[in-house]
Amino acid sequence: MVLLQQVISGLSIGSVYALVALGYTMVYGIVQLINFAHGDIIMVGSYAVFFAINQLGAPFWLAILASMLFCAAIGVLMEKVAYKPLRNPPSRRALAFAAGLIAFMLLLMFVISIAIALMAALCVCVAALFLTKRIGWSPKGGAPRISALITAIGVSLFLQNIFMLAFSPDPKPFPSVMEGTLKYGGRYSISYGALATMAISVGLMAALSIFISRTKMGRAMRAVSEDAGAAVLMGVNVNSTISATFAIGSALAAVGGALYSASYPQIDPFMGSQFGLKAFIAAVLGGIGVVPGAMLGGFAMGVAESLTKAVDSRWSDAVVFLILIIVLLFKPSGVLGKNTKEKV
Amino acid sequence: MLEVKDLHVHYGAIHAIKGISFHVGEGEIVSLIGANGAGKTTTLQAMSGLKKISGGFVAFMGNDLAKIKPEKILRLGMAHVPEGRRIFSRMSVQENLEMSAYIVKSKEQVQEEFKHVLELFPRLGERLKQRAGTLSGGEQQMLAISRALMSRPKMILMDEPSMGLSPILVKEIFRIVAQCKKDGMTILLVEQNASIALSISDRAYVLETGRIALEGNSSELMGNVEVKKAYLGG
Lengths: 344, 234
Hints:
The complex is a heterodimer of chains A (344) and B (234).
Chain A: H1 2-31, H2 38-54, H3 60-87, H4 92-110, H5 114-134, H6 145-167, E1 172-173, E2 181-184, E3 188-191, H7 192-214, H8 216-226, H9 228-233, H10 238-263, E4 266-267, H11 271-286, H12 291-311, H13 316-330
Chain B: E1 2-11, E2 14-24, E3 29-34, H1 40-48, E4 55-60, E5 63-64, H2 70-76, E6 78-81, H3 93-98, H4 107-120, H5 122-125, H6 137-149, E7 155-159, H7 167-182, E8 186-191, H8 194-200, E9 203-208, E10 211-217, H9 218-223, H10 225-231
Parallel strand pairs in B: 3-8, 3-9, 6-7, 7-8
Antiparallel strand pairs in B: 1-2, 1-4, 4-5, 9-10
């Protein structure tokens, strides 16, 4: 019976891994980018829930909904500001605006008056416009994939440090939201939290599956991930499809963050990197870019971790990584991964 | 219907299309023929927005295509059957066809066109639930054409529909191309198989390394000595 209990708690944490892994895998499927900042969305979402409950007195479900919306917006913003300019060349105007914005922020650090900073930034903006015109600079897109990857690491560090500045690096206690246990057979018990986590995650995954297979937007996502050019010929707006993918992935990560924080009630600005890494491994284990693979990988990892913990908790991470190494040795594309051949 | 003036296209530093001009009138089949690397595919891609135009002017029914986002071009009524088919191989045949629902809002029209293309290609009807990647080459080409027809375009760009197909299938595909013309569609056809392209089209342009070398009525070109020597095997 201990075994059953461990399996259930493993499935519970695994369902959260799966939720987060979905974001990694969907984004990878559509833009071939490993979005390292995805893990930090978990952290952002947890803070959002924390504030909605503590400051605004919102009930847990409402806090989760708000956090989903907030994280979806952050996800889209991240893609538009950091990743899209690497795929499509930014216009001269966008470049000048960025230069102005950077100047504005730098000046704010040194100059007290906002008005002076604003005016100086405006000058930088105009100068950039003029200069690029003068030297005949033309935008170039299609940066190599490694640039996008490094940018993702940058976005991750940016989010962690912004939150550290705003809320201090000290861990904060997360409010207890799902208490109580279900007892059965007199001796065994499962926490309601674990059950609710599983129910919510599985429900969301089912909804996502239906969305991807049945709706127009879902079909557009699959089309873009297979052949973006052909999707354009079908009238699909590739950029808005990519944005939708980021929004959905980030909203799922927000739920994952809330559920995780509910069972391990402590949040800090760096919680996303550790958890995100594990979710990423789950995505790779199942086959990155494959939606059912992320779900399978998440559950498998959760159960493996939980069973190892029953024996000796110090070994849990080691076992998870060992499984990953073994799977990749025999099937580098992951359990459900497609065997793709690199075109040369 | 389609008016191209002094079109230039670059791949980085390579000047692929060096100022070509041509036009396609309503209801015509016009073919672009030429050897590998002459710029036929690039020309079509510039029409449908897959490739950026670096100079010149392309107008489709009075719209300047350089100012229109690629994904909007289908909405204007210009469909493109790309080289190498590029069907969505992980989707079912039916899902491939229903991609048109992305721009066609009325469900009835989607259903109607669905019936229409299945009449043209009954073989696809038997394979609706099958994954498109498992179809044979000929069936994939049929699917690619059907997928483009689903939005009921006014003009269709076809890139090498005969590529890699057996002579019987080529005949079958070109029977459909002729049918599309009968139904009032305008067609710009790119082909390496010059003889079949000339036999079906009204007019043709011969592309050579990014320039138009010859143009004229297809029947005239078929009799042209140079064309015979270079493209018709004798």
